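Deliverable D2.4 — example input (structure tokens):
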């Protein structure tokens, strides 16, 4: 039997319920330490209450987070006098000082990877599943939210999770997992660190030989998932599409269809959420390619952000079945890139500009064509320059 202790740490009752206090230096302040009422000193020391049976696990977590264990003592013993004095001194600082974040320098966020693997997935529950495509649009795209409160799955913006659909394939083997970009920030749509959301289009195509309509196994499973149903989740994975920590950065995002998912997470973190350690003051520019206006996923939210933050967020649509490019053809995202190529060229030359591409693989060629034209005006070879951007981790691509 387990019960929560006074500071929120689960401890064991009974004769074997030994609990210890770790004094830790250098542990980053983030989602784990923010939740708990640890006394935190100006020097960066925290006190972590740990049940005996979790000591080894906690030691490994502290090491991964860059912390150093200074001392370990049984719970119930008083803090050393020097520690108490330092805590008291910090608490008595003037209000102007207290208004600052507790950590004086921002620590790099730890990137979780493969917390749950295919042979032992996390079993969550679907708590939301609703349609994103409006009347008159093509296909079906669902926004799904899963409960994570029963496990340890944590993630950051730009990562993906795997979904294992139930049942077996034609050979009688369990279905392989499919990866989906996460559409929520690390805090989840409920801002309680207990959910993860996806943006899923049901895959549908004609069989090349029989002409029969074929539906994707995993996407159909998710799109038809009922609220309350279980879902097998793996991951998280991915470090290619991570959002930079720089609050002054220029973030250029190019998406088609459900490629909007990671950028929804970016924009929600930049503008919708309020953070002590992250206040975005740069420029975010989203190019979004869709077939019809009714297919603009998260349309109301995106346009509200544009109205509220006109100096920091630009939104450019390419609606292929409703708009025409200068040549009279359909308006695709690459046409919008060409239209704005000169300005984009100026932006990508800035050291703190990051460009992200997510969606259909075919969009890459058109984007390169537009950037080649812009760079050529300055006698710059775009292919070579793009390689320097990739090497500097400022050109991020995730297409399918």
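Example output (designed residues):
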């Amino acid at each position: 039997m387990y019960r929560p202790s006074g500071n929120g740490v689960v401890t064991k009752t009974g004769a074997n319920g030994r609990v210890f206090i770790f004094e830790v230096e250098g542990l980053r302040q983030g989602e784990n330490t923010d939740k708990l009422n640890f006394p935190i000193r100006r020097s960066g020391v925290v006190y972590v209450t740990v049940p005996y049976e979790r000591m080894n696990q906690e030691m490994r977590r502290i090491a991964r987070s860059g912390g150093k264990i200074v001392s370990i003592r049984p719970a119930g013993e008083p803090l050393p006098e020097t520690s108490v004095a330092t805590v008291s001194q910090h608490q008595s600082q003037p209000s102007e000082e207290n208004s600052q974040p507790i950590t004086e320098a921002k620590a790099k966020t730890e990137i979780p990877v493969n917390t749950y693997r295919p042979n032992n997935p996390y079993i969550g529950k679907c708590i939301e599943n609703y349609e994103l495509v409006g009347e008159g649009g093509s296909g079906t795209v669902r926004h799904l939210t899963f409960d994570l409160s029963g496990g340890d799955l944590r993630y950051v913006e730009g990562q993906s999770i795997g979904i294992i659909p139930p049942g077996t394939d034609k050979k009688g083997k369990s279905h392989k997992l499919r990866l989906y970009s996460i559409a929520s920030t690390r805090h989840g749509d409920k801002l309680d660190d207990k959910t993860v959301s996806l943006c899923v289009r049901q895959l549908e195509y004609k069989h090349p030989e029989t002409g029969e309509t074929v539906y994707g196994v995993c996407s159909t499973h998710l799109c038809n998932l009922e609220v309350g149903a279980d879902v097998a989740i793996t991951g998280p994975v991915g470090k290619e599409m991570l959002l930079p920590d720089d609050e002054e950065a220029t973030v250029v995002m190019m998406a088609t269809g459900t490629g909007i998912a990671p950028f929804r997470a970016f924009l929600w973190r930049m503008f919708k959420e309020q953070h002590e350690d992250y206040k975005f003051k740069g420029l975010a520019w989203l190019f979004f390619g869709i077939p019809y206006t009714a297919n603009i996923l998260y349309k109301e939210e995106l346009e509200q952000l544009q109205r509220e933050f006109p100096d920091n967020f630009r939104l450019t649509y390419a609606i292929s079945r409703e708009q025409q490019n200068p040549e009279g053809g359909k308006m695709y995202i690459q046409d919008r890139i060409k239209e704005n190529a000169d300005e984009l060229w100026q932006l990508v030359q800035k050291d703190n500009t990051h460009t992200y591409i997510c969606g259909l693989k075919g969009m890459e060629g058109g984007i390169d064509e537009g950037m080649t034209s812009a760079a050529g005006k300055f006698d710059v070879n775009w292919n070579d320059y793009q390689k320097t951007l990739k090497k500097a981790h400022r050109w991020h691509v995730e297409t399918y």
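Confidence is low (pLDDT under 50) at residues 1-16, 28-43, 79-107.
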